[in-house]
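[Q] Does anyone have a clean structure-token version of this?
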Amino acid sequence: MIIRAVILDYGMVLCTPDPLAHANLLAITGLEREVFEGIYWRDRRTYDLGLLDGPGFWVRFAGEAGLALTPEQIQQLVANDVRLWVGTLNTPMLAWATALQEAGLRTAILSNMVGEVLREMRREFAWLNRFTHLTWSCELGIAKPDPAIYRWTWEHLGVPPEETLFVDDNPENVRAAGDLGIHAIQFHSVDQLRAELAEQGLLQGLPQPGEDEMVTRA
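[A] Here you go.
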């Protein structure tokens, strides 16, 4: 099977959460990690769809957590949430994306993304411009695993799903892509991705992903 386009998730594939920013979020809220994570992800889809802004998300979070937060604390939470998703990049995966582009493949990012993080990414990451297409949920009002967001992406890439590879850490998102005929792999690590590509016979004409290595942005 010849792959002509590769679609990558952003969070947990091209980046991982910045540990210092995460620690700051826990410190500001005073919540245990498990409690924090449960509330954080409960309303994240509404934020991803662009139906909330950053302060609105954290005001709702505070209400659900029973917290009385000051406006200054809300702004600190917004700032650290942005840092959480732009502070640590997966450089081997970024290098693989570049190698794919240089090999002539069409590439896209398909991400459930919030507006504040996206604005910071556009300020900081010139490499975004190397992708053929960028799909952000907050701009479309559609989020994975809605089939419409996958169709939007492959139509803008100009490559049919059967010639497209999709890589995402979320199993639900991977299943949704696979149901549409896309070659979909759940991402755990660069080594695992390389092994699964080889196992599925998808490396023909593709550069191989490199070694696992994370780097924190200066």
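[Q] Thanks! Anything notable?
[A] The two ends are 40 Å apart (CA to CA).
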